[in-house]
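Data deposition worksheet. Section B asks for the primary sequence of the deposited chain exactly as it was used as input, without tags or linkers unless they were present during the calculation. Section C holds the resulting structure in token form. Section D is free text for depositor observations; keep each observation to a single sentence. Incomplete worksheets are returned to the depositor.
Section A, Depositor: J.P.
Section B:
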Amino acid sequence: MLDVTRPLPRHELPGARDEARTAPRVLAAVVALLAVLGVHATWRYFVATARGQRFDELAFEGAEHGQGRLWVLAEPVLDVVSVAFVVAGVGTAVVVALVRRRWLLAVQVAVLVAGSNVTTQVAKHWFYERPDLLPGWNGPNTLPSGHTTVAASVSAAVLVAVPRAWRPAVAVVGAAWTGAMGVSTLVGQWHRPSDVVAALLVVLAWGAALCALTGRSSLDLPTAPGASMATPGSSVVAGVMLVGGAVAAVLAAVALADVSTEAGRVPFEGDVTAYGGGVGGVLAVTALVFALLLLLRQATARPQR
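Section C:
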């Protein structure tokens, strides 16, 4: 009796060609490059210019409004991040890949998490600086956010490791968890919005690069001869995330434009507007990152036939 719960060996798949498709992998490589440029552009505007710093600082100051109540929710989220959490997250992704007999993928997901977090620390402490462009001293560079990188990279690793049918649900959970982490760093005044956005783009760069390097051993296989590889749920989930992200991005853009019209005023004004815009920006980029990773993983993991 045929066991349809497991992928069939390649030699049992009539006419199957377990070759990775070129076009999706090229697209993934382009997305990875754009994400790298996005990290630098985020630093260039929000850290290296007075106007960008002003918006970030306003959002930072705006977090004081309602902080007491919000901190009750934010503190437990931030406390989850630890070495044990990273090990557990990476271990889960690696075990899933090994159970699926995707040996190279098991190595890749570990590299994804390690590479993302090392990149964040190197960029924060050795590559980028924070010039004092506003009145007073505003501290050392904090871009990208380490906590957000941990949450996003672990979520991305699980997303690319799980079977095809599970990925839409994992993308939603990963985006929700990462978004909560990013917003919590704002609530606690641990980071500014640009720090979180840059961290998300770092993970997108590594995740898209992994998809671009998808090889034969990491491809999805049908559970039965002739079974469809189509996953319409992925398109629906990604579409909903992109629409929601677009709405949040519009709110962030409106807040940025509104605050920019007040440039140069001291003391600062519009901190609540900037805070709301910063939250909107974080949620928008979170939705974009996980929608793209879901679509890229599904496309690059689908074998050519």
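Section D:
The chain has a mean pLDDT of 89.
The two ends are 26 Å apart (CA to CA).
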